[in-house]
Structures are given as structure tokens and as C-alpha cells.
Specification:
- The complex is a heterodimer of chains A (260) and B (341).
- With 260 residues, chain A is an alpha/beta fold.
- Chain A has two domains: 1-86 and 176-260, Rossmann fold; 96-174, no CATH class.
- Chain A contains ten helices and ten strands.
- Chain A has helices at 49-56, 79-85, 102-110, 113-118, 130-140, 159-172, 189-204, 216-222, 240-245, 247-252, and strands spanning 9-20, 23-34, 38-42, 64-69, 72-73, 87-89, 177-181, 208-212, 225-230, 233-238.
- In chain A, strands 6-7-8-3-9-10 form a six-stranded mixed beta sheet, sandwiched between helices. A four-stranded antiparallel beta sheet of chain A has the order 2-1-4-5, with helices on one face.
- Chain B is mainly alpha-helical.
- Chain B has one domain (9-340): ABC transporter involved in vitamin B12 uptake, BtuC (Orthogonal Bundle), CATH 1.10.3470.
- Chain B has a two-stranded antiparallel sheet.
- In chain B, helix 3 crosses helix 12 (282-297) and helix 11 crosses helix 12 (282-297).
- Classes of the chains: A alpha/beta (260), B mainly alpha (341).
- The A-B interface holds A 57, 59, 78-81, 83-84, 88-89, 91, 95-100, 104, 107-115, 130, 169, 172-173 and B 205-206, 208-209, 211-212, 215-216, 218-227.
- The complex binds adenosine-5'-diphosphate (ADP) and magnesium ion (MG).
- The site of magnesium ion has 4 residues of chain A, from helix 1.
- Magnesium ion (MG) binds at residues 49-50, 92, 181 of chain A.
């Protein structure tokens, strides 16, 4: 599945740090993501993964360092401008529109300037009927149309659906780079195994993906490169099997003693 | 032991069959379903259209009917901002005053007749209000509420202190309407326009984006949509009925003064929304239809008027906090029964 991968960098993070008072949540992290990559980010809770994503997507301003997308500096840009360029993220703590039905949650991104300009998912933002396209996306994500799940109020749906709704919001925008913050956590094993092929399919369509995950088995199935963080610092980066065997990763992340 | 077993019961609400049926295309296939859907709307519209005719023998109550429409417009503006955009605006009088003064200037300085001055003042007023409120849009919750409360008060002081816009005297001799019928139906159609226009908008895609800001502004940003710009558009939409109400009113009474920024005009719409039921846009109109006649009827109580008024409001907040419209539409659409737990 690596035919679409290139060595053209799509996202470059250079020396990025984010300090909250005395806490160095992210400390001098650099990362280059190439077009077509699936990059995994792993690390224990509190190691700065979400903060790094927030800095990349403009939801937080980094203390030091910069981020470039396709060679253009995006640090300091407003989050909606960055999203408009095609860097679309999910939230670890899901942020659905609780008072709207699930499919109407996707009508929002389908009504965004980006979707109106480039069409969104299968051109759904251009032609009038956004509702139908929204339901199509949800069906692709495993919302059973026959039991009318896409039409239920988002506020009444369980976590598994809300996680996938987060992903749906990204897809609706026809992203170039998707950043998933722990979409697999809270999902059942069968839900995950149905999402993995979808992620592979999206990647095969040329969408670059960054995934923060604790589910290493599933992550390593899709990721071609992994970065490990610990206490805000990058410990190592490389192919999945190299990273997992790195002594510092085993120690910091897996809590496995080297002697074992 | 012979202790009595307490039976626990819980209220269960179930959609009426007719409600479910009339949600689908099936609704168009039977008169019963069509009737179910349109009867409340027809009754509502008919009540307003007949009001000027039925009240024509009593000019005093005709005036009360007009005041009710004015309050309804301000209440719609409040309800839209508070319950669809998530901006609690305590300065409804600001829209009203700006609309009123703009129309007064258009009429007295440029000689535009009311039927031209009012719509133009509505638009210009809404632009002015939006531009002046724009700096407050990043504020949230109570901060936005307090700042907007200041706006009309500030206008009063500015006009007094700088002696601009006619100072404490205001403008007099503003042109009135050609006939009482034009006056009354012009206002009623204006109310319909804003009420049904906004009701329609909130269910369209652009309206959903506005509602999404209230639900979760971070997700709106993550979807590549500017929250500030969306709020700006929403404030403009909410300014329109408010400015229209002010512009209309000053032609009814042929004068405008600093009382156009009075605190009552900010507070009464909130009361109407609470009583009628927020988040429905119709509810505020119903609330206004109850509040205005009530407050007239209470004139006999003299200084106790405010006390009775406050008791009614408190009663509503405590016992029917969802408001009349929400209760009535629930009863219309669902039946309730007690079930054992
Ligand atoms: N807004 C904030 N203010 C202060 N500290 C924060 C904030 N956000 C995150 N942190 C701290 O930064 C560190 C990294 O958090 P986070 O990025 O959420 O980690 P992860 O996503 O890897 O679990 C934690 O110690 C957390 O307490
Ligand atoms: Mg996290």
C-alpha cells in the first residue's frame, strides 16, 4: 500500500515547545510527515500528545518553534484557517453538536467555506443535498442506516459512535491531513477492526494520517512510522518495530523492565 | 413483615401516532395529518390577522395590540441570540433605540416617508449595532451579557452629555402612518416576516452552523468555519427585528427620545421569552401576547402592579420553567402515562 507514499514533506514541525507555567508539556519536538504517511504518535498519558496536536492545529500557540504545511508556515494562524487548508483533527474528548441529529453534525463541515470551495466528501458541499452526503459518510463509518442511527440526536449516542462522528467531521471536509487523537479508545474490538480498513482506504486515496493511539496492535497495522513521546520529549522515531524495541520506549511507555 | 410495598411510578412520554406519521411524506396523503400539521399555524396567523378588525371598536386596546407586536419582535431577537447562538444579550433596547433614532433621522432630515424610512432604518440600524457589538463577540457568557447591558445605558448618557441627536428632547413631529390599518397590518406583516424568516433559517444549513456555535464552538473552528464571523452574522440577524421594532414604534408615536434606550425594553423581552418558552421563536410571541395585556390590566393595582407582575414571572420560572410553547407543543405531540418502575 505504499505506492502513494512520497518523500515530499506535507507537515514539518521544528523545535516545537509548549510550556504551561513551569510544565513543559511539549519540549523541543521536531517531526516531518511525508505525503501519504500514516504516522503514529505514542506515549503515556500526560506525555504531551494532545498538546502537540493542539499546537499544530492552531488551538494553542506554541511557546517556541514552528509548524509548516506544504512549506508554508502555519504557526500563529487561527484554527479555522488551518482547518480550511485541509489539516483536520478529531478531539480526544469528543465534541459533537449534542442538540443536533448525528447526520446534521456533518452538515456543518459540509457547509464550511472549504467544502463549498473544493466540494468536501464526494463533492457533497457543492450540490444542494448535504443531508444525503452526511448520511453516506456516517454509513461508511458504520452507523446503521436501517436502524436509523444517523438520525438520532448526537446527545443520545454512546461513545463508540461519537468517536466515529469525530472522524466523520474530518472526512466531510475532504482533508489532506487527518490528525486522530485516540479515536480507537472507547471503541469495542469489533468496532476497531471495522475502522482499520477504512483508515487504510483513506490512506490509499492519498490522505496523510497522524494517529495518536494506545492500541498498539491496531496502530502498527496501519502506521508506517511511529514517534514516541515521554514527558513532552521525543524519545525516538522510526519504523514501528524499531520503536517498540527501543529500550527507552519499553521503559517509559510500556513500563516494562529491561531485564524482562 | 407486612410493610406495604411502595409502588414506584414514572411518567412516560410517547409520541402520538399522528405526530410520527406527519413527519414523513405520508402527511400529505390524508386530511387528518395535514390538519394536524397546519391547524396550530393557521390559528396563530388568523389570530394576528383578525386582531386589528376585532379590536377596532376599542382604539386603546388596538394600541395595546401594537405594543404586543413590538415586544414580540424584541423577544424574538433575544430568543434567537440566547437560544440559537448562545449569546445572552441584555441590551435589547440598544437595537430598539438605534433603529428608532435612525428612522427618525431618515424621516426628519431626509424626508423619507415611514414606509421607506422603516426598512432602511432596519438595515442601517442592524449594520450599526453589529459594528458596535463586534468587539464584544469574543466575550462569553456573563461577560457578554453585562457588556451588552451597558450599551443602551451608555447611549442615553452620551446623548444627554454631548447634546447630540436632539439631546434630552429627542425628535418630534416624525411622520405617522397614512391610516390605522396600514399602521397595524404593516407591523403584523413585519412580525410575520421576522418570525417565520428566522424559524426557517434556523433549520437551513446556514442556520445549523449558527446553532452549532452554541453547541460547540471548538468543533466549528475545527470544521474550518470562523466562529467570530458566524456570530457577527447572527448578531446582524438578531439586530434586524430589534431595529425594526424601534423604527416602527417612533412613527406610531411621532417622537423619539432617550427613553428608546430604557431598561424596560431590554428586560421585558426576556420575561416574554421565559414565559412563552425559549428556543422556539414562537414562544416569545406568545409570551408577549400574555405579558402586554396583563401589564395593562394590572394598571388598576397602582403601585402594586410590579409586585403582581413579579409574582407571575416568578411563578412561571418556578413551575413552568420551560415556558408555555414547550409545554403546549409537547402535549400536542406526545401523550403521557404513568408506568410502574
Ligand atoms: N491547558 C493546560 N494547562 C495546563 N497544563 C496543561 C494543559 N493542557 C495540558 N496540560 C499538561 O500538559 C501535559 C501534557 O498533556 P496532554 O498533551 O494532554 O498529554 P497526552 O495527550 O499525551 O495525554 C500534562 O501534564 C497536562 O497536565
Ligand atoms: Mg491526550
Amino acid at each position: 500500500m505504499s505506492t502513494h507514499r512520497t518523500h515530499e514533506p506535507i507537515l514539518e514541525v521544528r523545535g516545537l515547545s509548549k510550556h504551561f507555567g513551569g510544565v513543559k508539556a511539549v519540549d523541543n519536538v521536531s517531526l516531518t510527515v511525508n505525503q501519504g504517511d500514516v504516522v503514529g504518535i505514542i506515549g503515556p498519558n500526560g506525555s504531551g500528545k494532545t498538546t502537540l496536536i493542539n499546537c499544530i492545529t492552531g488551538f494553542l500557540k506554541p511557546t517556541h518553534g514552528e509548524v509548516a504545511f506544504r512549506g508554508k508556515k502555519i504557526t500563529g494562524m487561527k484554527p479555522h484557517k488551518i482547518a480550511d487548508m485541509g489539516i483536520n483533527r478529531t478531539f480526544q474528548i469528543m465534541r459533537p453538536y449534542f442538540s443536533l441529529p448525528a447526520y446534521k453534525n456533518l452538515v456543518i463541515p459540509l457547509s464550511s467555506p472549504r467544502a463549498k470551495r473544493i466540494g468536501g466528501w464526494r463533492g457533497g458541499g457543492l450540490h444542494g443535498d448535504r443531508d444525503t452526503v452526511a448520511v453516506d459518510i456516517l454509513e461508511e463509518l458504520g452507523f446503521e442506516r436501517d436502524s436509523r442511527v444517523p438520525y438520532k440526536l448526537a446527545g443520545t449516542l454512546p461513545t463508540g459512535y461519537l468517536k466515529r462522528l469525530e472522524l466523520g467531521r474530518c472526512l466531510a471536509l475532504r482533508p489532506e491531513l487527518i490528525i486522530c487523537d485516540e479515536v480507537f479508545s472507547g471503541l469495542s474490538a469489533s468496532e476497531i477492526s471495522s475502522l482499520v480498513p477504512l483508515i487504510e482506504k483513506l490512506n490509499a486515496q492519498g490522505i496523510t494520517i497522524i494517529m495518536i493511539e494506545h492500541r498498539l496492535a491496531e496502530l502498527f497495522r496501519v502506521a508506517n512510522r511511529v514517534m514516541a513521546l515521554s514527558s513532552g520529549e521525543k524519545i525516538t522515531e522510526g519504523a514501528p518495530d524499531e520503536v517498540i524495541n527501543h529500550p527507552k520506549v519499553r521503559e517509559a511507555y510500556l513500563g516494562v523492565e529491561e531485564a524482562l | 413483615m407486612g410493610a406495604p410495598v411502595m409502588e414506584q411510578k414514572r411518567k412516560e412520554r410517547i409520541d402520538r401516532g399522528i405526530k410520527v406519521r406527519s413527519e414523513t411524506l405520508y402527511a400529505l396523503s390524508s386530511w387528518e395529518e395535514i390538519g394536524y400539521l397546519i391547524t396550530p399555524r393557521v390559528l396563530f396567523i388568523a389570530a394576528f390577522l383578525l386582531m386589528p378588525i376585532l379590536l377596532s371598536p376599542w382604539p386603546y386596546w388596538s394600541r395595546v395590540g401594537l405594543s404586543m407586536c413590538i415586544l414580540a419582535l424584541l423577544a424574538i431577537s433575544f430568543d434567537f441570540l440566547a437560544n440559537y447562538v448562545g449569546l445572552v444579550c441584555l441590551g435589547g433596547a440598544f437595537f430598539y433605540g438605534v433603529g428608532g433614532y435612525t428612522s427618525a433621522l431618515l424621516n426628519t432630515q431626509l424626508g423619507l416617508p415611514p414606509m421607506l424610512a422603516i426598512p432602511i432604518a432596519t438595515l442601517i440600524g442592524a449594520f450599526l449595532c453589529t459594528a458596535m457589538l463586534a468587539p464584544c463577540l469574543p466575550l462569553r457568557g456573563i461577560y457578554f451579557a453585562i457588556v451588552t447591558l451597558m450599551y443602551p445605558l451608555l447611549m442615553t448618557r452620551l446623548i444627554e452629555a454631548m447634546d447630540i441627536l436632539g439631546g434630552t428632547e429627542g425628535f418630534r413631529g416624525i411622520e405617522g402612518f397614512s391610516s390605522p390599518w396600514t399602521e397595524q397590518y404593516g407591523l403584523i406583516f413585519g412580525l410575520f416576516f421576522f418570525l417565520f424568516g428566522l424559524r426557517r433559517l434556523v433549520n437551513e444549513d446556514q442556520g445549523l452552523v449558527i446553532r452549532a456555535v452554541k453547541d460547540n464552538d471548538q468543533s466549528v473552528r475545527a470544521s474550518g468555519i470562523s466562529v467570530t464571523w458566524t456570530k457577527t452574522k447572527a448578531v446582524f440577524l438578531a439586530s434586524l427585528p430589534g431595529c425594526f421594532a424601534g423604527a416602527y414604534y417612533i412613527h406610531m408615536y411621532s417622537n423619539v427620545g432617550i427613553s428608546a434606550f430604557a431598561l424596560d425594553l431590554s428586560i421585558m423581552p426576556i420575561a416574554a421569552t421565559v414565559i412563552g418558552g425559549g428556543g422556539t421563536l414562537i414562544g416569545p410571541v406568545i409570551g408577549a401576547a400574555l405579558l402586554v395585556p396583563l401589564s395593562e390590566a394590572l394598571r388598576d393595582f397602582g403601585s402594586l402592579r410590579i409586585v403582581v407582575y413579579a409574582l407571575v414571572l416568578t411563578g412561571f420560572v418556578v413551575f413552568r420553567s420551560e415556558g408555555i410553547m414547550n409545554v403546549v407543543s409537547r402535549k400536542y405531540q406526545q401523550f403521557e402515562r404513568w408506568v410502574k418502575v
